[in-house]
Amino acid sequence: MDLFLFTTEPQWGGDVVAAGAAGIVVDWECRGKHRRQAGEGTQINADTPEDLSVMRAATPGWLVCRINGYGPWTAGEVAEAVGRGADEILLPMVRTVEEVDRTLELVAGRCGLGILVETQDAVDRAAELAQRPLSRIYVGLNDLRIDRGSTELFRPLLDGTVDAVRAQVRTSFGVGGLTLPGRGFPVPGDLLAAELVRTGAEFTFLRRSFTADMAGRDPFVEVPRLLAALADVRAAGPARAAELRRAFAAAVEGSRAGVTGPVPQPA
């Protein structure tokens, strides 16, 4: 499974990639995010075009730039990301096929274009979206939860939503996020890792929980350990896989019972 680290720290990012991660994500998405995620305690980045250039120089790994959701600014953001060396652009908050088509026209084959399925509109149009020449499709659980007015972060992994989207995707598919083995809240990261394997996820993200859990640890030890843990889950037989699935469902239901305030954020 390919791991992509959200960071603008060149030494940290370069080490994580050298230790086995596939690449780096520089996150420009901020338009409307404070309003959309107000009170949710979510991670809202404010990465800059200069950050993208710094990370391009820091690592030969795959460099992804998440731009803002489609709008009048998209042409400028695409041109800037391509000009600064992004290997791939991620378009968040997709709602229509037309906005993906317009972005593909702007990219014009100069780099890859992936999308985030994190609205109910995008879920409903997954089959049409998956027919586009996209480099990857990722289901974003947190924004999908907000878009649905739900308090249940992991419900789409249990109610068939993620599986239904996955069934349409022929390009690289991703969902969720990971941290170190033995960590993770509100659902243990090991169980979430098993769910990612079950869904056939080919990539996922390492975000603030991973970075926090890595404090004082060596990425050249921990990234290979995480990849080895994923390989172990992938090698599990049907009985063990079913056991992990039941444990994941129980953990999700347990975390749901304890929710009284802002929804705990995923790894």
Care to describe what's here?
This protein has 267 residues and is of the alpha/beta class. It is 48% helix and 15% strand. It is built from 14 helices and 8 strands.
Number of strands: 8
Shape: globular
Helix tally equals: 14
Strand proportion: 5-15%
Overall structural class, as computed from helix and strand content, comes to: alpha/beta
Radius of gyration equals 18 Å
Percent of residues in helical segments? 40-55%
Compressed to H and E, one letter per element, the order equals EHEHHEHEHEHHEHHHEHEHHH
Stretches with pLDDT under 50, minimum 5 residues = 259-267
Q: How confident overall, as mean pLDDT?
A: 92
Q: Compute the separation of the termini in Å.
A: 16 Å
The largest pleated sheet is described as: 8 strands, parallel, barrel
Strand order of the biggest β-sheet: 1-2-3-4-5-6-7-8
Question: Topology, pairings included?
Answer:
Layout: E1 2-6, H1 10-18, E2 23-27, H2 33-36, H3 49-58, E3 62-66, H4 74-83, E4 88-91, H5 97-107, E5 112-117, H6 120-124, H7 126-130, E6 136-139, H8 141-148, H9 155-158, H10 161-168, E7 172-177, H11 189-199, E8 203-206, H12 208-213, H13 219-234, H14 238-257
Parallel strand pairs: 1-2, 1-8, 2-3, 3-4, 4-5, 5-6, 6-7, 7-8
